[in-house]
Amino acid sequence: MATLRKRGDRWHCQVRKKGYEPQTKSFRTRAEAERWARLIESEIDGGAFVRRKEAESTTLLEVIDRYEREVTPRKRGALQERSSLSLLRKTSLSRRFLSSIRTGDVSSLRDEWLQQGLARATVLRRLALISHIFNVCRLSWHFESLVNPVDLIEKPTPDNARSRRLAAHPDAASASDEEAAHDRRASDDELHRILKVTGSSVLRDAVVFAVETAMRRGEIASLLWSNVDTKRRFAHLPETKNGTSRDVPLSPAAVALLQKMPVNISGRVFAMRADALTRAFQRSVVRARRLYEEECTAKAKTPDPQFLVGLRFHDLRHEATSRLAAIFQMHELAKITGHRDPRMLLRYYHPRAEDLAKKFAEVA
Question: pLDDT class for 363, splitting at 50, 70, 90?
Fold first, then answer.
């Protein structure tokens, strides 16, 4: 049965039932307390009672802290996830009790992020993190009454497929397609300019290596000398983004690069973390763009608005894969790049009709 007591300006209600732990909660009014007591008694009598104490007395901030201590360290992307958790701590939801967070609250947070200009893929990753936090609370930390508020909201559709290629100098745009393609392979002016302005030899080597191997940023940053075989010309990746290992063949240029590089005491080929690679690359892109604009000003020319703009480190993987697609068949390319679904590689294959017609002639 329920016992109600008024303490100060709050009504305290306790429900006791044989075989169940006493349930206690305080309310502003007696009517609210009585309504809650009837609900608890009804659930107990019907065998549908679940504990609410944890969810009603624990804030999202508290479980974020626990999640970071117990769950995040077991993940490969622990560093990036800690950054996302720090952002979640700054939201208004972090101060709310878990039981009070509803689907509408998370929907409002989603809309706020989108209005701030965040990429839909970024918002989707943050929502997935919130969802996993709630699931861990329910399944591992015994928050039995907790409902995941992310389950029923509309998720933004990611639009993160990129097709950015390294561009030749804008002045070469008037050349024929074949000449432009040759210019790209020969000079890669955007790449040349970025490498020219960077003051980091590690970044310079990592950028060249990325273009030669199509390896991901994290794979490059974690590559160990013990997993590199320059004689047989391949690099072994024991753990990749897809959760599997793979061997990446090394081009002659990649082998030559590795052979001239010093071996550092850490055992890593590139002594720079993945996030540091990104920041150093972005700084170099900005610096190269500034110098390009100064050159255009000196020559009284209008700068190309696309040249050295919007370029990311991950675009080097797209560039490398596009080049390799001209050499290897799709099933071979999938082994090199680590794509689990070969259909994802279709966007890298752009054979011209006349080239395909030549193959017919060769077979005939």
Answer: confident
CA distance 101 to 94: 10
Q: From the CB of residue 318, how many other CB atoms can be counted at a distance below 10 Å?
A: 19
**pLDDT band of 52, cuts 50, 70, 90:** low
Q: Are strands 2-7 and 23-27 parallel, antiparallel or unpaired?
A: unpaired
DSSP assignment string, 137-158:
HHHTS--TT---TTTTSPPPPP
Confidence category of residue 187, pLDDT binned at 50, 70, 90:
very low
CA distance 197 to 204: 10
Identify which of 18-22, 30-34, 180-184, 314-318 has the greatest average pLDDT.
Answer: 314-318
**0.90 exceeded by the pTM?**
no
One-letter-per-residue 3-state SS of the chain: CEEEEEECCEEEEEECCCCCCCEEEEECCHHHHHHHHHHHHHHHHHCCCCCCHHHHHCEHHHHHHHHHHHCHHHCCCHHHHHHHHHHHHCCHHHHCEHHHCCHHHHHHHHHHHHHCCCCHHHHHHHHHHHHHHHHHHHHCCCCCCCCCCCCCCCCCCCCCCCCCCCCCCHHHHHCCHHHHHHHHHHCCHHHHHHHHHCCCHHHHHHHHHHHHHCCCHHHHHCCEHHHEECCCCEEEECCCCCCCCEEEECCHHHHHHHHHCCCCCCCECCCCCHHHHHHHHHHHHHHHHHHHHHHHHHCCCCCCCCCCCCCCCCHHHHHHHHHHHCCCCHHHHHHHHCCCCHHHHHHHCCCCHHHHHHHHHHHC
- Look up residue 319 and give its two tokens: 């560039």
Overall CATH class of domain 170-363 = mainly alpha
